[in-house]
Amino acid sequence: MEINNQSSGERKLQCNDVTRCFQLLESILDGDLGENGKEVLKEKLDKCQPCFEHFHLEQAIREVLKTKCTKQPVPTELADSIRQMIQESK
Amino acid sequence: MSEVQRRKYTQEERTAIFDGEFMPHIDSMYNFAFRLTFDEDDAKDLVQDTYMKAFRFINSFEQGTNAKAWLFRILKNSFINEYRKKSKQPAKVDYQEVETFYNSDDVDYQSTTDLRAESVKDMLGDEISNALNALAVDFRTVIILADLEGFTYEEMAKILDIPIGTVRSRLHRARNLLKDKLKGYAQSMGYNTDEEEE
């Protein structure tokens, strides 16, 4: 995503409506707004430093959760034992 | 997920749905169960129970709808009804109490956290997992569903039987709690963990 290239000097340092903005940003990150979110997002990230930082932190958290959480290997016999239980119940 | 009974599936259709639409989710199901129970045997039992129920009530599954969400809902209900009581990990928060607390959907959105995106990105899988596992089960659940399994707000609302607004606010609270834990890690170490990977 090309949102890193603006100088932060152009962004306002205070967000006027943190609640609405952050809620919006989080909905966008969670994919709840679809395409509608894209334009709003660019506007926020270009113009508002707190929004910019919040967005990147929230994005990083989602990313590490998705990619780094340790996965538990499924016991090999589980699928077979389920099939067998189903078979027996028929 | 209506309870309306559709026409009954034939034996062949049931087998096809079970093998084609239910079984491929066994990996996600087991991991969800393990993250709820923290115990391999409990997780196995929970997944087994869920699949048995899924087979028994297969006629209430509508083909073409999201099988994974349907299965997750059964698993979550089984967990609440059966496992939570006997789970070795006592529930940290009373469900009812938590619900009333949640049901105000007003949430504080503040830019107070001094946690940086960069330090989050540097964290190890174990730190992330530990932080997640340290959350109370209801908070942990929404993060698992949203971030690990990629469910939408709408799907989560159905799985958890709560309104979408509650999904959104609970998820926000859960991530804030997670941020607090991660902030603790970020402060306590400069990312040189001496622990050996087994």
Task: Write structural notes for this entry.
- The complex is a heterodimer of chains A (90) and B (198).
- Chain A is an all-alpha fold and 90 residues long.
- Chain A is 62% helix and 0% strand.
- Chain A has helices spanning 18-29, 36-47, 49-68, 78-89.
- The model of chain A is unreliable at 1-8 (pLDDT under 50).
- Chain B is an all-alpha fold and 198 residues long.
- Chain B has helices at 11-22, 26-37, 40-56, 67-86, 95-102, 117-121, 125-133, 137-148, 153-160, 164-188.
- In chain B, α8 (137-148) packs across α10 and α9 crosses α10.
- Chain B is elongated.
- Classes of the chains: A mainly alpha (90), B mainly alpha (198).
- Chains A and B meet through α1, α3 and α4 of A and α2, α3, α6, α7 and α8 of B.
Offer a concise description of the structure:
The complex is a heterodimer of chains A (90) and B (198). With 90 residues, chain A is an all-alpha fold. Helices cover 62% and strands 0% of the residues of chain A.
The largest pleated sheet of chain A is described as: none
Radius of gyration of chain A: 21 Å
Category from helices, strands and their pairing of chain A = mainly alpha
What sort of overall outline of chain A do the alpha carbons produce when their principal axes are compared? elongated
Query: What is the CATH domain class of the largest domain in chain B?
Result: Mainly Alpha
Detail the poorly predicted runs of chain A. Answer: 1-8
> What about the largest sheet of chain B?
none
Overall average residue pLDDT of chain B:
84
CATH topology of the largest domain in chain B: Arc Repressor Mutant, subunit A
Total of DSSP H or I helical runs spanning 4+ residues of chain B: 10
